[in-house]
Amino acid sequence: MFMERKQKELQKMERVQAIYRHPYFQKCLEKNRKAEETRIFCKHHLEHFLDVARLAYIFSMERGYPIQKEEIYAAGLLHDIGKWQQYSDGTPHEKASADIGEKILRETGFEEAERRRILTAILSHRKNRMESDTAESMAGKQLAEVLYDADKLSRACYLCPAEGECNWSEEKKNLNIIW
Fold it and tell me: Could you give the 3-state DSSP secondary structure of residue 107?
């Protein structure tokens, strides 16, 4: 029974697996790792991406948002994938991540409307600025909202040895175990 459930879940998340296995995604993960080797603050690696995706999925369920699990996980995996580019040439990482994400999403079978929602969420994950109230964009607004919240709340500041040196405000830091 467990194996059947696992197989069904894997089939539902086939395109997310394709993102993870995509050669350019793997290359960017490695570039992030190298760029942050000596960084003492939060890192932008697969564990962070999965923490964000899982929290965003929980938030979408708790809030009753009808967001597809694959879109949430795609946004979670890709939202910081371009962080290395910010370090190397100053490109804001949300823009770099959206540019990288566009290529990967297209090559892993995401349709145009799905890509638009995911990329909009990635572009707004630092400031959560969504302006349109159309029915189609409501799903995009909700995805952007849960991605933004998950990205901020995924950080375990209460465990961080560099917390005292971090430039996040005290209000923004996660100093209590919540999720």
Answer: helix
pLDDT in tens, 34-82: 999 998 888 899 999 999 999 999 999 999 999 999 999 999 999 999 9
CA distance 57 to 77: 12
DSSP 45: S
Q: What six digits make up the tokens of 76?
A: 């979670």
Q: Residue 76 and residue 85: Cα distance in Å, rounded? A: 18
Q: Are 171 and 76 within 8 A, CB to CB?
A: no
Cα 18 from Cα 26, distance rounded (Å): 11
Q: With a threshold of 0.85, does the pTM exceed it?
A: yes
How far, in Å, CA of 34 to CA of 133, rounded?
40
Nearest to 78 by CA among 21, 136, 118, 113: 118
Could you give the domains of the chain?
11-165 (1.10.3210.10)
Round to whole Å and give the CA distance between 59 and 68.
13
**H or E, element range at 88:** helix 83-89
| Tokens, residue 117 | 């929602």
Residue with structure tokens 């564990």? 47
